[in-house]
Design goal:
Belongs to the GreA/GreB family. GreB subfamily. The chain contains three helices and seven strands, in the order E-H-H-E-E-E-E-H-E-E. The protein is an alpha/beta fold. Strand 6 and strand 7 form a beta hairpin.
């Protein structure tokens, strides 16, 4: 399944900031250390040179990816007409059958972060939530079986 090209405004700025940091700060610094290591002579046994070249390849790969990806992404801002229903960018509080309560934010695949409770809009839970309202129930197939959740709240901005 292809990942969606949606991203929150904050997510887009974070990727853009990473790209600028890699290109304007990290790459010039690593390039300088590689040229200094190369000036020391034998490159075949020079760990600084070998590591630096490897790091430059990693930076260049990430810069190419971010440049291309930022061009493809579509920033989605919350719309007042979305209030009361679950759409991209929403913070959704769910309760499962065992009365466990969890809050998730639906974000783009480029910015999902389990530690922040941000889930990808492409995930099964997010797909089941789209268009639903408070008090609706959703069923999600998980590796451990089907889980039913009840939607307790939907917010687009955290207070």
């Amino acid at each position: 399944m292809a990942k969606s090209n949606y991203i929150t405004r904050d997510g887009w700025y974070a990727l853009d900031k990473e790209l600028k940091y890699l290109w304007k700060e990290e790459r010039p610094r690593v390039t300088q250390s590689v040229s200094e290591a190369a000036a020391q002579g034998d490159r075949s046994e020079n760990a600084e040179y070998i590591y630096g070249k490897k790091r430059l390849r990693e930076i260049d790969r990430r810069v190419r990816f971010l440049s291309k990806r930022l061009d493809e992404l579509k920033i989605v801002d919350p719309d007042p007409r979305q209030e009361g229903k679950v759409y991209f960018g929403a913070w959704v509080t769910l309760e499962d059958e065992d009365e466990n309560i969890r809050t998730f934010r639906l974000v783009g695949s480029d910015e999902f972060d389990p530690a922040k409770q941000w889930i990808s809009i492409d995930s099964p839970v997010a797909r089941a939530l789209i268009g639903k309202q408070v008090d609706d129930e959703i069923n999600v197939k998980t590796p451990g079986g089907e889980v039913t959740y009840c939607i307790l709240s939907i917010k687009y901005y955290l207070e």
